[in-house]
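Hey L., structure's done. Input below.
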Amino acid sequence: MNIQNVTHLVHAYKIAPWRVNRQWVGTSLLAVVALAMIATLYLDVTSQAAIAGREIQDLTAAITINKQVSGDLQTQLATLTSASVMKSRALELGFQPMESGQAEYLVVPGYSVIEPDILSSAPLPQMSALSIPPEYNQSLLDWMDEKISSSSRGLQ
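Output:
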């Protein structure tokens, strides 16, 4: 810059000082708008976090209530199916305790009990090295050696 340009700028500001004031006002307004945007963004993120936290609290409370209801229902079921309650209900329905001499067994001709394979005492078949296919007895290095040697034989 030469001196003439500098004097021209100084002269322009002396003639119209409102330009400097307008620049300061513009810069100040820009800073205020930027701060307002940052504050708005902060409030938005904070409110979303608060809403999510409240939903978690509500769900935790619901889980606790459901666990209590489940426990109550399990207690009621245990009470209703206890031996003493079941005996009294059976007596009310006309059932009587059975004596050992009252049992009758029915023999069905031709019926044979089929035992499941799991409970049978048959020995499990043993796998020997001879019954395993050779592909499963070969290591990776043996396989690679075989492939390399077969490819080198194919080139000859």
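The two ends are 83 Å apart (CA to CA). Helices lie at 3-15, 18-80, 83-92, 140-155.

-- N.
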